[in-house]
Structure formats: C-alpha cells, structure tokens
Amino acid sequence: MATIATTSLSRPGGVWLALSKNRLSWVGLVLLAAIVSIAVFAPLIAPYDPFEQSIVARLQPPSAEFLLGTDSYGRDVLSRLIYGSRISLLVGFVAILIAMTIGCTIGIVAGYLGDLFDQLVMGLLDVMLSFPTLLLGLMIAAMLGASLQNLVIAIAITEIAPFARVARAPTIVLKQQDFVMAGRALGFGPIRIMGVHILPNLISDVVVMSSLWMASAIRTEASLSFIGLGVPPPTPSWGSMIREGFDNILDAWWLAVFPSLAILLTVLALNLLGDALRDAIDPKLRGE
Question: What is the pLDDT of residues 104-155, one digit of tens each?
C-alpha cells in the first residue's frame, strides 16, 4: 500500500542536505559526537577514579595535576564530570525513548479513533501540559524517591503529553488520505493502518522533536539532581556537582562552573542539531 510522499529526512542524502544548509548544525553534531564519545569511553579517558577521596587534596584549584580541580572530598572534578556525562545522556535518552513510545501511541490512537476517546485523552494531556515540566517532574520524583530508575520515570512522564500532541495532529490529517481509505476498503484493521501506514509518515517529525526534548530532559535531570531528587551520591551527576559547587561558590568556583558548562554545551549541541533536522522536514524552511 502506498503512503504519502516521504519527508526529506527519509530521502537519500536528506540529512546531509540539511546539515549542509545549516552550517551551525555541524557544530552541534561535532559537539554531540564528542560528548557521546566521552561518555562511552569514560573509563579510558578519566585520569582518576571518580569515587576516590583524598582529604589532603580537597578543594584544590585547577592545576597540572588536577586539570579542573578537586571537590570538598578531594575527588577529581574532571573524572567526575566525565562519568557524570553518562548519567545525563542515559537519563535523557531513555526517558525520551519511553516518552516517545508511549506518547506517540496515545496520540496516534486518539487521533485515529477521535470522538469521545480523543476528547478524554486530550483533556487529560491538557491537564499534564498545564504544569511546568520541572514542577511536574519534581512532584513525581518526590513521590517515587531518589534513584536512577525513578528519575527516568519522572522525566518520561513529563514528556508524554508533548509527544502525544505532535503525533495526534498529523494522524487526524493522514486518516482522511486516500491510501488510508483504500486500506480500510481492503479490510485492513485499525492496528495495521496506524502502525504500517500512519506511523511512518509522522516518524520524521517525532524524531526531530525528540532531539529537542532530549535537551529539555537533560536540563530537568540536572535540576532534579541539584535539589537532591536525582541519582543518590556518590554517583557523579552534573546537577549534584553544581549543587556542591553552589555550597562552596565563594571558596571553589570551579565546582559549579565546569558542570554548568558541560550542560550548556550538551543542550546547545542538541538544539543546533534539532534545528537542522527541523529545517529538513519543513517545506517552508526548505523553500519548496
């Protein structure tokens, strides 16, 4: 069964063309590749054990021995920063993957079935969207408790409603198209139509938005870790490192500055890359 014309992301060279037109996207791609590589090869890159404490070396400023200084327990900040990238990227990726799967399923089903079911689902999602992302994540994380698993669940729940909204709107349009009508005439069931004919035509939009919302998930993770609702210590996390730096801001500025820069660069990379992918699927921005 034929489908609607594919978006430029699914065309050969579509992503390459998007990156070529948006030069800043290369900055985001290189930054993101570097950050992911650092997270993957953390045991090989980190100069010290991120958990090793030394009272003698506590609160040492950046130097040749400790490039980014040490914290109040004498732990190497650079090593903890490198290992902290694993937590941020893991939480962001897994949370967005869960939210994308659940949210798109809800949005497609609601958009396809319509009527009362659509109204009830969208009403519930509107209630979720009425809460700021950080506030909703804070309430859920506080109820579940501080752990890596609960942190992922809390962030995923906050992002379900936006994904459902993104998936629902095109589904309402797509279900009126000729190829869907033809599928119904041939006796295809709703599950096959939604999964085989509707989903492929909106997946590009969802993937683009997931790159932008992953940046939001990383910011939320850092914020929750900052207030003590993230990964329990001594596991390194950028948010918890900023919190420790905040407590010692007058004596050790490096404790808060370097994790903040890491979050800034990661979010910037995801936003630049997401903007390029968005330009690739938007015919108005492509000048078509």
Answer: 999 999 888 878 888 898 888 888 888 888 888 888 888 888 788 888 999 9
Specify the DSSP class assigned to residue 229.
-
What's CA 105's distance to the chain center, in Å?
18
Cα separation, 283 vs 35, whole angstroms? 31
- pTM, full prediction: 0.84
Rounded distance between C-alpha atoms, residue 103 and residue 244, angstroms = 35
Structural tokens at position 33: 């590749």
Q: Tokens for 141?
A: 């994380």
Q: Are 69 and 61 in contact (CB under 8 A)?
A: yes
Q: Alpha-carbon distance 86 to 206, whole Å?
A: 24
* Phi, psi (degrees; rounded to nearest 5) at 70: -130, 165
**Token duo for residue 82:** 């490198």
Rounded-to-integer distance, Cα 168 and Cα 25, Å: 28
Distance, in Å, from the CA atom of 172 to the CA atom of 164, rounded to the nearest integer, reads 12
DSSP letter assigned to residue 11 = S
| Residue 135 backbone dihedrals phi, psi, to 5 degrees | -65, -45
Amino acid residing at 192? R
CA triplet 114, 158, 276: central angle to 5 degrees?
85
